[in-house]
Amino acid sequence: MAFTIGSSVAIVNTDMMRMLPPIYIRQSVLFIATSWALLGCSEVLPPAAYQATGIKIGEVTDSEVIVWTRLTRDAARVGFGAPVPDTLYIHPESGNIVQDPVWPATPEDWIPVIEYPDGATLETIEGAVPGMAGETRVLYRESGLDDWRATAWTAVDSDRDFTKQFYIMGLESSTEYELRVEARAVGEANASSFLNGNFQTAPTSEEPERVVFVATTGQAYRDQDAPGGGYRMYPAILDLSPSFFVHTGDILYYDSWAKNIDLARWGWARMFSLPTNFEFHRQVPSYFMKDDHDTWSNDSWPTQNSSFMGDFTFSQGQEVFLEQIPIGDLTYRTFRWGQDLQIWLAENRDYRSANTDPDGPEKTMWGARQKAWFMDSVRASDATFRVLISPTPMFGPYNEGEIDNHTNIEGFFHEGEEIREFLSSQENMFVISGDRHYQYVIEDPTTGIREYTTGPASDSHARGWSADDIRPEHRYLNVVGGFLSATAERLDGMPTLTLRHHNVDGVILNEDIHIAE
Asked: What is the Cα–Cα distance from 295 to 480, expressed in whole angstroms?
């Protein structure tokens, strides 16, 4: 590409620019544009599309994967220090404008009022990454090969926050793949940015391969702990070279700021454009689950009537979740990872009865179809170790008055008993749960099943239980942030599952080793 500046010619090597990360492309283009402007050049640069919210690699199997991307107008997020909207509320009794109630209070008859600081807009607040129309494609190849396979160039969906999900099939099992996700503006022939990624497909059910996975919960934007933005746990997880990652829910916290769908989308953009999150998700395939705070609001359910979330509805929360992560049609699903491991991911929000309903046989968190699917598929599995991953705890104890999970009499205890009884009938069955803002291992005194809760993403988000309140059921208790890792492997020929709690820097705090009977 050549442009005349006075009597000289400025050459822009577009092939070379496509080899640069987006931020360098942006800086180069801005430098050239400024130079032309200063010299009185009338040439106009072609439009460019970027991917400042990164890519997400999801739902990987032994032959398939989903790659998610989103086109953005700018190469970088609006930085820290920019203004953020204020959320105030109209008090239903006085009519006065009041401050945010103390979390986790969600008074259903309060009406939110969003105020932007002078001059600020949705596109200029901290973490904003405006989307843009354009086209994207995915190139992929087995690591070490020269030739790429490519999807067709496809337009992103402007009604779904300028996102696109690519379903890639026909992959080889137990194989490392490289990705290259390209973006271009409408009407342009060449890519203006690209992102590289990598992942490994799962082994087949006949392969006794070593598999390492990691799970966490409770990722609040205000509780970041990494220098430069993000979470210290992500580099620590990368050091383990995990096969996959599970986010058990509460990926972000809508409650105090997502009072319309545009602000909800802003929350996803600012979370996944954080440096640690951006870097992590291009390298590790993930399975995403949702809970209350990344569906709608604290302890929410589908039929709940509330003005607390303003114009943002529960159903919109369900839609935005499916829009912002790589996933198929159902949010409950199972994945096989070799001969020794199968995981089940439960859906706890979409099918639940009202939390306030009296408990009994008709009250459900999972719904009849999901329960039947779960029990049938567990019975049919010949995996050595079976692991249920739940957004909320299956086993107690928990604080009195809590009605949002299966553990307490006041909540969904009847259904919890039904599921716990089934779990106890299975060999080598374990439970991993999210939601709790601390780490623990509980051995249920009735069934003998062990539940491992992951703990939250950062220490500043750890709370909700006294470290001194150690009950007989506790085999480990620690009010800290971090993550849980699980390793399925053969040691001396014996199938072994090792579960470890880590702090935010990856240090092992607790270890349980289970050898298959």
From this structure: 25
